[in-house]
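Suppose you are handed only two things: the residues of a chain and a line of SMILES describing magnesium ion. What would the bound structure be? This form records exactly that question and the answer produced for it, so the two can be stored side by side and reused later without any lookup.

QUESTION INPUTS
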Amino acid sequence: MKMDDRGPKERQERIEEKLARMKTGQEQEAVQQIIDFNKTPADLKVVMDRFVIGQEQGKKIMSTAVAFHYRRLGQALKQWLAQNDGNIDVALRQTMTPKANIMIIGPTGCGKTYSSETASKMVGVSFVHEDMTKFSEVGYVGQNVTDILLDLLMAAGGNTTLAQMGIVYIDEIDKIATETTAASTCRDVSGRGVQKGLLHLVDGTENAIQIGKERISLSTKHVLFIAGGAFENLEVKVKKRMSRQGLKGDWRQFLMADDLVGFGMERQLMGRFPVRVVYDKLTTNDLKDILVKSEDSALLAYRDDLKAWGIDLEFSDDALTEIAERAEKEGTGARGLISVLHRVLLEDMFRLPGAYTGTFAVDRNYVRDRLG
Ligand SMILES: Nc1ncnc2c1ncn2[C@@H]1O[C@H](COP(=O)(O)OP(=O)(O)OP(=O)(O)O)[C@@H](O)[C@H]1O
Ligand SMILES: [Mg+2]
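ANSWER OUTPUT
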């Protein structure tokens, strides 16, 4: 070896060593966090309430499921580590915990993905969001369901231990339903295939993923799966069944795996999502509350932005009602708020900074004026 090669090589080794140490440190910290996890369902809901508006029943069910999942995992890990040599990877494989994956049903933009992501942040675990529409396209050949694991591994910064304790959110799961009546077969074939793939994934104690030449084994035993879908017209179907069977009451209380199977979902897959929760369509009042109460509110963000230019943005109550009503008409749930608000403020956000300081009041007439 030439003299001048040694420097960079040693440096490289030092960096690698440091990175490895950091990785182990991060891992220990994250594992410790799960072991110490002691938030109650009520604790989680209090935090969720700061962000997710409405969906009282949904938030209750979600926070209970998430709190129990991580508490149980934490306790199991603690016990195993106390009795054995402390190898976390082995501990994850050996610990047995019953798992209750969650299925969220509800209209678009009502907070299904949002509340799941909020929950993952509260626990501090890796979170991936996977859209099933990309797997259901006609002519689907490429993407493999196990790619989801790759995404999870990335979200965990390449750390397999962290990946194995994360949350996978499976969005638009109803898009991989097989058509039970229609003649179309393309979507059926891929839909069923994707559902079978998901079943393996959700169940999978050992899943092999290939990265270049390296083969990594990932267990999803402790991964919490949350599936979300609009399941349009499911309500009608359940109500029909209820009237056939002479059942009365809130359809949500009577929702069964059978109804989802009737929608075109595989029974075995639905069996793996025993916690079912139906989210409500957001009302005008909810939408208004989202604007002023959710800590992630677009309105609050705009207000902070303008404040930095010395402009105090103020919305009258009737202006907020008007925006909420317009947003509701868009039929995209809370997503409509962002587009409506943006249309109302666009001109002013361009015009005011640098040209005006002080209070900037927006009332109903102003909103109507801007939106036409
Ligand atoms: N209940 C709610 N409280 C506060 N904000 C909400 C609520 N629901 C939705 N939002 C806002 O709207 C955005 C879109 O919601 P989200 O992604 O959760 O929709 P979704 O229910 O998953 O719909 P889709 O079926 O279209 O995927 C969120 O990022 C959030 O900002
Ligand atoms: Mg979503």
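WHAT STANDS OUT: Residues 112-113, 171, 228 surround magnesium ion (ligand 2) (CB under 6 Å). The chain has 18 helices and nine strands.
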